[in-house]
Amino acid sequence: MKSSPKPRVPAPRSTQEILVPVDFSPASRAVLAQAAALARTLSAQVTVLHVDEPPYPGALNEFPGSIPTNTLVEPKKLARRLQLFAAKIIPAKLAGEVLVGHGIAGQTIVAVARQRQSRLIVCGTHGYSGFKRLILGSTAEYLVRHSPCPILTMRRPSPRQPVKRLRSILAPIDLSAPSRQASTYAAGLAAKLRGPLTLLHVVPAIDDNAAGERAAARSAAKLEQLAIKLRSNGCRVNSAVAQGETTAAILAAAADTDLIVIATHGRSGLGRILLGSTAEAIIRQATCPVLVVRSPQPAKLGWFNPLFWFPVAPVMP
Known about the structure:
Blueprint: E1 16-21, H1 26-42, E2 44-52, H2 75-87, E3 95-102, H3 105-116, E4 120-125, H4 130-136, H5 139-146, E5 151-155, E6 169-172, H6 177-193, E7 197-203, H7 209-230, E8 237-243, H8 246-253, E9 259-264, H9 269-275, H10 278-285, E10 290-294
Parallel strand pairs: 1-2, 1-4, 2-3, 4-5, 6-7, 6-9, 7-8, 9-10
Antiparallel strand pairs: 5-10
Helix pairs in contact: 3-5, 8-10
């Protein structure tokens, strides 16, 4: 008598996943190419996600050239197009799954990343600022505030630019718990990239030069203590203290760096408007990629219209 066959249990992924949302635009091609280069270094696989957003008046696309949101595409055709799009950029040995989701882009991407326990999200951003950014909003900024994993943003990516090899890392530190967590992440990444890590602390400029020098000296001592701990990860760690306005000082220090790793509290709503966010300012203005490590304290989701929310429904070609 033959024994009944055992139920098939999906094998766990042997490598970790980098999730890349795309919209078929030239910008998303550049993002996907950078993600593939990073996946090769981190021994990860690239999973590609396209979100088919619900057609409603006033919907705006993240990049020029993306599929209009008022155009309905048959799911299997969309999945097939996505598979062909990804295959042209991602080497077969780095290719993960190809997924199509349905819903509001930011919320759907976060749901997929949480469900799949993605290691990293890589996305592009226009880098809007001021009133235009307030009107248009940004899927990238939503991800920065709500992503369950670190997120790498590329400002105005272009397929004409060669894929950049990421080595040197700048980690701005305010000595808070979230920034210390981000510095630990940066040290581990620097060890894998085999590049140097620079810890930067910015002290506000004050009129009293002597007091400013004392504050800078105290910060330098604390920063060096943190650097000593991080060197145990096997990477080269330098520390530096600058004086002045925080965002300007960070951008100046990042002029010759390949990647910025920064922490964010993930604030949303009125609290974010009143308190501001150095991380979001850096994302909008930095010329190099910015990797954001969120605080474990989750941000509030805020209000959204449930009529425009659809469950995630991955479709395989």
